[in-house]
């Protein structure tokens, strides 16, 4: 699982006040070993495996799918990860993952 932290108060498209929650910068760092399953298979900083969550079922056979998640454009990922794709230039303004929530929603 992942968590988000409060970042700011925003106004949405309809001028409704919302609270913006973002993924913390260190969310996918290898120091957070709870994201390494099994624990000896940590990916570089900025990536985490979702393979244990996703399985392909074909009849009696169940296969782990190699699914990896990150911030858009590998924002906050290890430099080696960012350099593995030509042309990426991650920045907070364009590539920060966020959720805007209206505070009065129950």
TrEMBL record:
Enumerate the InterPro entries for this protein. Answer: CD36_fam (IPR002159)
Q: Which GO terms describe its cellular component?
A: cytoplasm; membrane
Q: What does the UniProt keyword field contain?
A: Glycoprotein, Membrane, Transmembrane, Transmembrane helix
The GO terms describing molecular function are: scavenger receptor activity
User: One short Pfam family name for this protein?
Assistant: CD36
Q: Which ranges form a coiled coil?
A: none
Q: Can you tell which superkingdom this protein's organism belongs to?
A: Eukaryota
Q: Where in the cell is it found?
A: Membrane
The UniProt family comment states: Belongs to the CD36 family.
Name of the protein described by the UniProt record: Uncharacterized protein
């Amino acid at each position: 699982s992942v968590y988000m932290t409060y970042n700011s108060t925003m106004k949405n498209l309809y001028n409704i006040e919302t609270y913006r929650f973002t993924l913390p910068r260190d969310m996918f760092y290898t120091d957070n070993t709870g994201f390494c399953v099994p624990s000896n298979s940590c990916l570089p900083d900025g990536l985490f495996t979702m393979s244990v969550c996703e399985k392909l079922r074909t009849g009696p056979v169940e296969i782990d799918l190699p699914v990896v998640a990150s911030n858009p454009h590998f924002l906050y990922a290890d430099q080696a990860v960012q350099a593995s794709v030509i042309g990426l230039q991650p920045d907070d303004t364009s590539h920060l993952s966020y959720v805007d929530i209206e505070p009065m929603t129950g």
